[in-house]
Design goal:
single chain; 20 helices; alpha+beta; elongated; 68% helix
């Protein structure tokens, strides 16, 4: 046979089976376009020059790592579906005289035609949409500059094209292996081979119940953000295993239970739906479980990234009650640490502000020790180096500092402390604090703490100690315990500018100028050994970081959600087509034995609704049980606002349900056309 004949046969096969091929090709174009956009964003050096753009490359690399295997899975799934639907056709080819090698060549050109459309459409769409994505990135990063021009990278075009070409090649090789193993007679009879009623595999049912319960229990019992981070992927793994096992066996057990209920089963619509599902649930279960997992991924991804982005201003407002802060210290030749006095820092800050046409309208000095302690029962103690456990954040000030900042007097006897329990804390307030040498007991519970603790991903407590000697003792003991991870006592100056809008535009220059003045100050001090430490922070710098990180995550979340929707829609579409071809003969028989067209349609609708919305319900249940763990993870990302997260989750679930219903309405029409 000549090559032209192979190409002609392949093209006619693709054209005549457009209902099967077109959705796969369109989803491949979409996946390739998204892959090209994310890969280009990860390598576009211009984006790193945008304020907050340093996070884009890091998160886009993560996106590439997620999309690559998912795209391969979907391409292989499409190939598998096409091969299954065309078994009889291949068997007929073989019986009529075509050898397996000839069929393999036809399949090669079918794969080449589909891959060609995917490469042309996907890369062209990616290049066209990249400009829109660049504008969207600038929008979510809240930057004024706009990347309003095209950026075409030959390297990313070639890399993206070769990656997807390799995926289609893997799919083709897999098809060739199946053809080499096929038996023509069995393939011709495959359409007439009925499935036996499946049995309930109790071991798999038990595994599903245990793993799903285990995943849920991990989430419900998480009380520490770091533990949530460590146990997140094990919990997800357990839930995925449980979902697949329960769909494979639990659904069969449920259908058999319904079949055993005579009052329910012996109704016309119920009998058709239950019996039809029961005999095909083995093949339905994997698709339904996959849809449920993908739906959960969409809801989790969108709700978390949207809530993080929506909570940026609130997080910065709580973490930075004042516009800017500065602390600095230097070291002498006698290895003595010297903190620059607050009045000197204020003088230097005023000089740096004056050079930028600004003036400082408010200032406040505060002195504190912030360090990590470990919780052991009802006791807090200093954390040792390389030690893991339930860590809490502790802020210590003296009674004198407390009076200076709050105006309230505290009278504490020896080994007594006052404690402030942060309202976001989950654990019980400690009954004792030990430095390792001395034990302290809470004598006073404070309603507020004069030093803003900001956003914390662990429980946080504020402590007021009796005097300077006690503060130095705690400082030294936590240094002995933690060594290089120990914290130092901080003298910090907080201040506000009179013109916040003007300050927001020049704060990088102001920060650089203030740092230069602090260095000049240190070099002018007697005994300075050349080592110093300082930090100049501002709410605008924090906003830049939050918008860079959360904005990049939001964009990646949107992109990944689109990919998950591709996968969900593709699985649902092919599932409907597969069931349509299998149900057509069955419903034609029902009409011949007396059922009207409306009755058949009603039975079809009941079966589709039951199958279609079960994964959505499972996804909602998964999301409900995942909320405690996700809430803890969001604390690590400085988003402890549970009300905002709940609202975003509710809206996301509602929007996803509407999209899901839209997918249902489209695929149901295809199903009805087939069975009629």
């Amino acid at each position: 046979m000549k090559m032209k004949l192979y190409v002609w046969l392949a093209w006619n096969n693709v054209r005549k089976n457009a209902r099967l091929y077109v959705p796969g090709v369109l989803s491949g174009m979409g996946l390739l376009g998204v892959f090209y956009i994310i890969l280009t964003l990860s390598m576009d050096e211009r984006l790193r020059e945008v304020r907050g753009g340093s996070y884009i490359g890091m998160f886009m690399v993560l996106g590439v790592a997620v999309i690559t295997p998912l795209s391969l899975i979907l391409i292989l799934y499409t190939n598998s579906f096409l091969m299954k639907q065309r078994n009889r056709e291949f068997g007929l080819y073989n019986v009529l005289g075509l050898e397996k090698g000839h069929i393999g060549r036809i399949l090669f050109w079918e794969t080449a035609i589909c891959a060609g459309f995917v490469l042309l459409g996907g890369l062209a769409g990616g290049m066209l949409l990249y400009k829109l994505c660049a504008l969207l990135i600038c929008r979510v990063l809240a930057v004024d500059s706009v990347l309003g021009f095209y950026h075409v990278s030959l390297g990313t075009l070639v890399s993206s094209g070769l990656t997807f070409l390799g995926m289609y090649l893997i799919g083709y090789l897999r098809n060739r292996i199946q053809i080499a193993r096929m038996n023509p007679v069995e393939l011709l009879q495959s359409a007439h081979t009925g499935e036996r009623e499946p049995k309930v595999k109790w071991l798999f049912l038990l595994i599903g119940m245990v793993t799903l319960t285990g995943g849920y229990c991990i989430s419900l019992n998480i009380q520490d953000p770091m533990a949530a981070l460590e146990l997140f992927f094990p919990a997800v793994f357990l839930v995925i295993i449980g979902t697949y096992c329960l769909f494979l066996t639990g659904s069969i057990a449920l259908l058999k239970l319904l079949k055993g209920n005579r009052k329910f089963y012996y109704q016309k619509n119920h009998m058709i739906a239950v019996s039809g599902l029961l005999y095909r649930m083995k093949q339905n279960a994997v698709g339904l479980a996959s849809i449920a997992i993908l739906a959960t991924m969409v809801i989790v991804t969108v709700s978390t990234t949207v809530s993080m982005y929506a909570g940026i201003d609130d997080a910065v407002r709580r973490q930075y009650p004042h516009q800017a802060s500065v602390y600095a210290r230097y070291y002498t030749e006698e290895e003595k640490r010297v903190n620059i006095p607050g009045e000197d820092l204020l003088t230097l800050s005023r000089e740096a502000a004056r050079e930028q046409g600004l003036s400082i309208s408010f200032s406040k000095e505060q002195r504190y020790l912030a360090c990590a302690f470990l919780r052991e029962g009802d006791t807090l103690r200093p954390r040792l180096r390389n030690e893991h456990g339930l860590a809490v954040e502790c802020w210590f000030i003296t009674a004198e500092e407390y009076y200076k900042l709050s105006g309230n007097l505290l009278f504490l006897s020896e080994n007594q402390i006052a404690v402030y329990d942060h309202p976001k804390n989950i654990g019980k307030m400690p009954a004792k604090l030990t430095s390792g040498v001395l034990d302290f007991e809470p004598a006073v519970v404070l309603e507020s703490f004069p030093i803003p603790m900001g956003e914390n991903f662990s429980d946080c407590y504020g402590f007021v100690v009796r005097d300077e000697e006690t503060l130095e003792h705690i400082h030294e003991q936590q240094k002995k315990a933690g060594e290089d991870i120990a914290s130092e006592i901080t003298w910090e100056l907080l201040f506000d500018f009179d013109d916040e809008e003007a300050a927001s535009k020049v704060y990088p220059v102001f920060t650089s100028g203030l740092e230069d003045k602090i260095r000049e100050y240190c070099f002018a001090q007697p005994g300075f050994d050349g080592h110093l430490g300082m930090r100049v922070a501002s709410k605008w710098e924090a906003l830049e970081g939050f918008y860079g990180m959360n904005g990049s995550l939001l964009f990646l979340g949107i992109i990944l959600s689109i990919v998950f929707l591709f996968a969900t829609a593709l699985i649902i579409y092919y599932k409907q087509i597969s069931e349509g071809y299998e149900d057509r003969a069955r419903f034609q028989i029902m009409q011949k034995v007396g059922m009207s067209g409306d009755e058949v349609k009603k039975a079809i609708r009941g079966q589709i609704l039951l199958v279609f919305f079960l994964p959505l319900g499972v996804a909602a249940v998964h999301m409900a049980f995942a909320m405690p763990m996700l809430t803890q993870l969001l604390r690590i990302l400085f988003q402890p606002n549970q009300a905002l997260f709940l609202a975003c989750t509710g809206v996301t679930l509602g929007v996803f349900t509407l999209i899901y219903v839209l997918i249902y309405s489209i695929t149901a029409k295809v199903y009805y056309k087939i069975v009629r």
